[in-house]
User: Which sequence fits this backbone?
């Protein structure tokens, strides 16, 4: 079973429906679909939630509501609460990156919860007490507390990365990395180009080539990259040859 299916995001008494919608979107982005809300207020504007959920609005049809946090996590083993504050009852907080393996180990076999607090007051001490772990997301002292949905994203992102969800394939370069022989062909063509276009004198060529080799070694060169650079050298050498044939010794600057 995909452990992400065992992870439940629990929002305690959220004040803004827009944040609930944003959380739906974040969760679907990260492959997590079990959303529970504790004590949803009467005032919540569900149309606003749908607007911000956008194409994740089906999450709102499936969400579970509970009167208390204890009920929302009754079937969960690990219950990780989040807090922007440290200090009393919140010491020994984990980083999202540290808690991700704990959450995934647990979710391999059991329901596992991540709990998020109210936008204005966070989680109360009696709610923190229900949690087995506390997560604190490092943030600037200029403004410690994140927007609710952003806090959900940071936690879910770390879990998603570690879960190695098989439906996600990182983008891959299609062209293979160029080998030594191909790179030397490039340097030979560029040496000839630099001489034939008058870019540098023969005495300066070695010095120039060392500089160019350094530039080209800063990143990976693929076979396609080399083909483009070889093409550029070929065309420049051809133009230089044509100009010479036409008796034009002065190349345009
Ligand atoms: N004033 C509240 C902030 C609430 S922000 C407080 O001091 O807790 C709403 C929720 O977003 C928090 O309850 C928590 O679940 C999450 N959150 C925001 N910033 C966070 C941070 N830096 N680390 C962990 N969770 C955070």
Assistant:
């Amino acid at each position: 079973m995909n452990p992400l299916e065992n992870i439940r995001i629990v929002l305690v008494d959220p004040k803004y429906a827009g944040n609930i919608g944003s959380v739906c979107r974040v969760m679907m982005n990260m492959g997590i679909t079990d959303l529970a809300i504790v004590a949803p207020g009467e005032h919540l504007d569900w149309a606003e939630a749908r607007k911000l959920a956008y194409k994740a609005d089906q999450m709102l049809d499936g969400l579970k509501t509970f009167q208390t946090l204890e009920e929302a996590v009754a079937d969960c083993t690990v219950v990780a609460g989040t807090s922007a504050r440290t200090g009393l009852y919140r010491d020994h907080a984990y980083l999202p990156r540290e808690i991700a393996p704990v959450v995934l180990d647990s979710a391999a076999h059991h329901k596992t919860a991540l709990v998020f607090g109210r936008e204005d007051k966070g989680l109360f001490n009696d709610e923190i007490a229900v949690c087995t772990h506390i997560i604190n997301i490092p943030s600037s002292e200029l403004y410690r507390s994140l927007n609710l949905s952003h806090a959900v994203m940071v936690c879910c992102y770390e879990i998603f990365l570690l879960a190695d969800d098989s439906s996600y394939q990182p983008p891959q370069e299609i062209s293979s990395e160029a080998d030594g022989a191909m790179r030397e062909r490039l340097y030979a063509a560029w040496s000839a180009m630099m001489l034939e276009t008058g870019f540098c004198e023969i005495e300066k060529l070695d010095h120039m080539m060392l500089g160019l080799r350094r530039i080209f070694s800063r990143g990976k060169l693929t076979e396609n990259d080399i083909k483009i650079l070889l093409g550029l050298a070929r065309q420049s050498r051809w133009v230089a040859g044509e100009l010479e044939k036409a008796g034009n010794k002065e190349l345009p600057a």
